[in-house]
Amino acid sequence: MADASLPESYNLCMGSLRPDTCRCVIFAVCFLAAGCASPALDPSWPEPKPGAQGAPQGPAHEQRWLIPDPAAGVTMAATLWRPDGAGPFPLAVIAHASSQDAAARNDDPAPKYRQLALWFVRHGYAVVLPVRPGQAPTGGPYREDQFGCVNPVYIESGLATAEALDAALSYMWAQSFVRKEGAVIVGQSAGGWGALALASENPPGVRAIVNFSGGRGGHAGNRPGVNCASEKLVAAAAHFGASARVPSLWLYAGNDSYFSPALSRQMADAWRAAGGKAEYDLLPPQRDEGHFFVEYPESAAAWSTQVESFLARTP
């Protein structure tokens, strides 16, 4: 729905935020449609301030937010869900997957993980999903690049993801309805890898990490089952595990063609051998491609039991 209080050019901007073609700042609209008109915006019109953008909607109080990421120099588009009441609620931060391919990041909005978010809301959490820099509809520089397949920089790419997650944590902790302790970081694929990288920094107030199908370098050359320098990925897991003291749950499916059971076990074993805390669970095959099981409605029963049990054991 157009906002009559804003210039028409703002209401026309719908879809991916590309810094070179479209200065979309009404992210509530940008999340709802693909494609992006490129109107000439009035440079004198002020951009929205960080924080809530519009009223919450629906039983889970879904709401668009803007969250500053000072390190990247951008404001991240985000979606917030929360339970009824004033709180304060513990926080769950969802870290989305991303692609090395710039066109894919710009053309397709980040996954919304609504089912996962609502599960945490039912368990009493406020949930925020920030769209990290370099991904539509946030835009800006892609700071998570692994720089090729021959000598990928998995540590640096993971820490760049972690930096954006930490920015979201810090900003949301300043909100009155968020409890400033007991946060859970939940990530899938590259987001799961970033959550593990954040664990290596042991941020105060973070209670646990839940890693769904986490890693980097899968589908090298668009080939299922082929990974970029998998030995470097295992070594990077050991590097993060050496300093991580936050408990973590690692969930993978038996038919993940990005990170095979053998590789994901190697990563978890390297993490634990280095001193990190990790519970590793391999779920049965899920649909045709297990890498995305957290997004499948029929897979919720399998992962939710594991997550609920893990959080119940985590102080």
Number of H/I helices: 9
Strand content: 15-25%
Q: Assembly type of the shown chains?
A: single chain
The structure class reads alpha/beta
Please tell me about this protein's structure.
The chain contains nine helices and nine strands. 30% of the residues lie in helices and 18% in strands. Helix 8 links the parallel strand 8 and strand 9. The chain is globular and about 45 Å long. The protein has 315 residues and is α/β, with parallel strands linked by helices. A nine-stranded mixed sheet has the order 1-2-3-5-4-6-7-8-9, sandwiched between helices.
What key phrases describe this protein's structure?
alpha/beta; globular; disordered N terminus; 315 residues
